[in-house]
Amino acid sequence: MGLRGDISDAESTEMMCRADTVGVFQIESRAQMTMLPRLKPRNFYDLIVEIALVRPGPILGDMVHPYLRRREGKEAITYPSDAIKNVLERTLGVPIFQEQVMQLSMVAAGFTGGEADALRRAITNWGKNSKLLTFKDKFINGLLNNGYDKDFAEKTFEQVKGFGGYGFPESHSASFALISYASSWLKCHHPAAFLCGLLNSQPLGFYAPAQLINDARRHNITILPVDINKSEYDNTLECVHQHCKDNCWGVRLGFREINGFDNEKAQLISAWRAQQPFNSIQDLAHRSELTPIDLQCLASADVFQKISGNRHDARWEAAAIEPNSKLLNNAIPGTQQELLTLPPTIEKDVLDDFQSFGHSLRPHIMSLLRTEKPFSRCSRKCDLPELRHRGFARVAGLVVSKQRPGTASGTMFMTIEDETGDINIIIWARTQETFRKIIMTAKLVVVTGTIEIASEGAAVPVIHVIAGRIEDYSNRLAELEFKSRSFR
């Protein structure tokens, strides 16, 4: 595949153009996922440009929108000279790569090779424009002396100055693009293996395991819970559709996903069960070196479903093994049997999952709250494309990320998650001041504002909610926990 060759796999290409790239190297960030439907990379060089374009240098140098307008045919592509055309033709007349800046300084501003290299070193001194600014007079005067007009000269140096905020060399972007394409292909054609590799490589990237798993489930990938007789330390692939040739694999979660469980003991469990699968918690305790604390940790993680029932029953069974168990000794006489037989609530199971793993394979928390006010009056992620552009919007979800890039003039980008996907929230600086405490501390929010739907020229609509009001409903999570414990 050459630099300008078509990306050979159409399905992977369409997936990228839809910004369906959670977990994909370099093109999984919110900024990249906003750009992908607009740029619509159809060949490898498009992908190289995509990766380089979403960088502080091109953004600060005002290169992003001119490139997109020219790519979409909304702006004429012109060159003030053949020399500049030779340098910028491959990027539609917009300097995107560091090499192009060096070439422009030589062919248009009269720099020598040594001076161009000095300019390169000043550019790579990221964010420290004092050295870069020493080249301003020479660069602009060089352009003027070579017959370019003053507006063009000054605008071009502003673009060069933008690279002081960090821009990519073309070779660097090409290397990243190759890995991005390979990652996209894997996610598209082997999604279970792709997820399994990401989970086993944590921590990495923009997304926590909860977001990666939820994305996979929205793509109909089967995620199997940790099981005392089937799980290994790492997450593994497991055949879940024996008669299906394509995507027959699911992901079996491993013991590494359990918060606070000793990794060395997790790796040894498979060795202890190699002789024979465990048939009860007592059997596990007898044949292994696990402590009572280990057994309670595993019971709370619900890994004994197949041999002891739900985690509620398993906790009592594990407690019965431990001498002087506080759980048993503190039970009120006459109520122990009732406690053992009462079924756990779905709310408690979900919250216990989060306590043990940081995520749940059960219904999303928002689906448990959706029938209650104010959540019943909120649009879900899947409903947003049907709303009117620049119309009213109210959304709710768990806060999963917040970013305030240096190139965004103080704007904050928040991502919230509901049961159907991630919702992108834009919070202007003034709104941040009003709701600062909520933004910093809330785990569950309701956001009221204006919806922006950019669909012209995009492969799929790019949707943001501009926050006008942010309300903290984290107390509902506590209420869920109280509700889940009410059976006691």
Can you walk me through this structure?
47% of the residues lie in helices and 12% in strands. It has helices at residues 10-17, 30-39, 44-53, 56-60, 64-71, 82-88, 98-107, 113-123, 129-133, 136-145, 150-162, 170-189, 191-200, 209-218, 263-272, 281-287, 292-300, 305-308, 311-321, 326-329, 336-341, 346-357, 365-369, 429-434, 436-441, 475-485; strands at 223-224, 236-239, 249-252, 392-403, 412-418, 421-427, 444-454, 462-472. The strands form two sheets. It has a five-stranded mixed β-barrel. A hairpin with a 2-residue loop joins strand 5 and strand 6. Helix 17 runs antiparallel to helix 19 and helix 22 (346-357) packs across helix 26. The termini are far apart.
The main β sheet shows up as: 5 strands, mixed, barrel
Strand order of the largest sheet: 4-5-6-8-7
Percent helix, as a range, is 40-55%
Distance between the termini: 63 Å
Question: What is the residue-mean pLDDT, rounded to a whole number?
Answer: 87
The rough form would be described as elongated
The number of helical elements comes to 26
Uncertain runs: 331-341, 484-488
> What is the radius of gyration computed over CA atoms, rounded to a whole number of angstroms?
28 Å
- Number of β-strand runs: 8
Please indicate the percent range of residues in DSSP E strands (runs of 2 or more): 5-15%
- Find the structural class using helix and strand composition: alpha+beta
